[in-house]
Amino acid sequence: MWKVSRWPTCCDMDHEGVCHTLPAWKTLPHSSSLILVDVDSWRLVSVEPKQYVALSYVWGRILDILETTKANFEVLQQPGALASPGVSSRLPRTVHDAIVLTKAMNQRYLWVDRLCIVQDDYENKKAQLDRMASIYTRSYFTIVAADGSDADHGLRGVPGTALSRNYEENKYRFSEQCTMMQAPIPEDKLDTKDWHRRGWTFQERVLSNRNLIFFHDQVFWECRSSLWVEAIADIAEGANPLKISKRKGGDRHDLQFSKWPDLHQYANLVQRYNSRLLSFDSDALYAFSAVLQVLSRSFPCGFLHGLPEFFFDFALLWAPVFPQKRRAHRFPSWSWLSHEGDMSFLYYNKCDECVFKAGVGSHIRVPPGVELAPLVEWYKTSATSGDKVRIGNAYAAHQTARRDPTLALPPGWESRIHRQTHANLRSDQEAVVYFLNDKAWGTAFIYPVPLADEPLQTMEDSWGPNLSFRTARRFLVGGPAVVGHVESGGHGWSSHRDAEAAGCLTFSLHDAAGDWVGVMRSNAADERDIPLAETCEVVLLSSGVAHDDPWHTTRLQFAELLVRDELRDVVVYEFFNVMWIKREGDVAFRLGVGRVWKEAWERGLSERVDVVLG
Fold first, then answer.
1. Quick check: helix, strand or coil at residue 454?
2. CB neighbour list of residue 466: distance below 8 Å, 6 or more residues apart
3. How far is residue 39's CA from residue 123's CA, in Å, rounded to a whole number?
4. 210, 229, 248 — which closes off a domain?
5. What Pfam families does this protein map onto (predicted)?
6. Predicted local distance difference test score (pLDDT) of residue 239
7. Could you read off the pLDDT of 11-34 as tens digits, one per residue?
8. 147 and 290 in one domain?
């Protein structure tokens, strides 16, 4: 326990400005008042929090579990209430042990959802859910109880608790002067437990700046700077803990507070979250809302049913990786919230980057392989007034500066040219334009992204599920599946199922004459479920251009460029992103997304139609 108790102190001393004492942009305001567990007096108190520990754990299906209600709230505020015989017998072991641990770590207060939210008080519950981002972001650290399948597993090995743990350090003594130990196994290499698969725990972990993790009967410390493990926690006096263990970049539980709308981070977070499980389908948005609250500080116009308005064209192009199940709750069919399971975005890693990342060799900057452009004006409908409001799908206006150097840049921006050489680069790729802004800590941007001086405030309203828009339509015929390609079929590991699974198939689209037009991503892994020879109503969403790069990584993401003879030698591929829809009365619903070759689409006759997409 002595070793573990040093971790917060080391972080306090050496990680200021990174893990704590953060500038306003990198944190959220404190909640004005919270219900907390006072671990000294074993009772609930309502206080203005200055410093507290939070708990992240799985509930499971324990009968007669203690939770705060309007009926018992007053009783639970009495000194010793949580330790009294009639109450302590219903207190889950994990919560009990978290109280003991918090006190042992010299902290006074603990936040636990079951106790610190009045479960049958709608107003209190809604207020606490709205504060979830602040609660975890502002915790002194968060205890992550990742072992066990329910709240009675406990934090095993904590002194003063009932259950011991099965942990043994593997040490090898070669001589009196030389003893070695087996390197600790990192968390991402160990078998995951229920905690790693539950939806609610995702945002609890990514929002917390510092986590004390109980997993596989071991204890880990994870903060924004470092990752420390129990076996090597005894840091020598005077040693710099930063040199003992550094946290890896790109951690799967990482969320950066950016001043710009980081589309790639959004896509990455959505993909990891949606593979997790929820007991109630209606929680799909609530369990991710704290993450969206943080992201909305830098995304102009915020989020609509989980999709960023600023990059609306891109966000509509979510697609299943393995067959997904439609959620029982009626989320809009065009939102990824409508389906649970592993998913991705059609051009993930190809057009969602705002910042240059190194290619082959750290000196190479590779421009985006795919560019999208808007074709449609999207409108959302206010659930309160019924008014239609145009969606702020404004990404393209900011990207023009990259293609036209004669345009005046927004205030505060400057462009520079990065010159590079590589055997695989074409002559037109040896000079790459990038953009700088002093507000963004010297980051090299692909284009001048919107940067706010202060966190953005989104317009408060309740929006209905329907999108309204006018676009081009064609009726195409479903063709055979595209097999043997990374974009279609195959097998892989499904995080949602926690097992190997067959991937979703992409099938071809043909016109009435039988000529190939494009491809469509299905929600099926069996070729018998492909709509072969069936008529599909297909509408345009956006346009796109794919540039083949020297290492052909872009080409590998487009099945048609590899299997269609007429496209094999194309260097610049122009296409339209499309949606396959099905109508029920006056409202259409999404069945899938795909793309069509621009030249093939324009050879046929299309018509302009008004669509209400629900």
1. coil
2. 332, 380, 381, 587, 612, 613, 614
3. 26
4. 229
5. HET
6. 47
7. 999 899 989 998 888 899 888 899
8. no
319 found inside a domain: yes
195 and 314 both lie in a single domain: no
Are residues 214 and 297 both part of a single domain?
A: no
254 occurs within a structural domain: no
Structural domain includes residue 180: yes
Among 269, 274, 254, residue whose Cα is nearest residue 496: 274
Q: CA-to-CA distance for 97 and 483, rounded, in angstroms? A: 53
Both structure tokens of 432:
């790459």
Domain range holding 323?
A: 263-374+391-420+427-445
Residue 58 has pLDDT above 50, yes or no: yes
Radius of gyration of the chain (CA): 27
For residues 288 and 301, what is the distance between their CA atoms, to the nearest angstrom?
A: 18
99 & 53 share domain: yes
**Residue 491: predicted pLDDT:** 86
Cα 174 to Cα 170, 171, 177, 205, distances in angstroms:
13, 10, 8, 40
Domain count, the chain: 3
Distance CA(238)–CA(236), nearest Å, equals: 6
Beta bridge partners of 416: 434
Q: In whole angstroms, what is the distance from residue 522 CA to residue 505 CA?
A: 6
Sheet holding 227-229, edge to edge: 43-47, 34-38, 109-111, 53-56, 141-145, 210-215, 218-223, 227-229
* CA angle in degrees (0–180, nearest 5) for 573-574-578: 120
Of 475, 481, 263, 488, whose CA–CA distance to 372 is shortest?
Answer: 263
CB neighbourhood size of 520 (10 A): 27
What is the sign, positive or negative, of the torsion defined by CA atoms of 393, 398, 400, 402?
A: negative
AA letter at 244: I
Residue 143 in tokens: 């205890």
What are the φ/ψ torsions at residue 26 (nearest 5 degrees)? Answer: -100, 15
Helices (H), 226-326: 241-244, 263-274, 286-295, 312-315
Whether 44 maps to a domain, the answer reads yes
Cβ atoms of 604 and 522 within 8 Å: the answer is no
Average pLDDT value for residue range 148-160: 90
Count of residues making up the chain: 614
Please give the model's pTM, rounded to 2 decimal places: 0.92
Q: Examine the domain organization and report whether 483 and 434 are in the same domain.
A: no
Q: What is the pLDDT of residues 159-186, one digit of tens each?
A: 877 677 776 667 778 888 888 877 666 6
| Tokens standing for residue 547 | 């540039």
**123 and 58 assigned to the same domain:** yes
Task: Using CB atoms within 10 Å of the CB of residue 319, give its burial: 0 to 12 exposed, 13 to 18 middle, 19+ buried.
Answer: buried
* 64/70 Cα distance (integer angstroms): 16
CA–CA separation, 415 and 427 (whole Å)? 20
- Do residues 166 and 287 share a domain? no
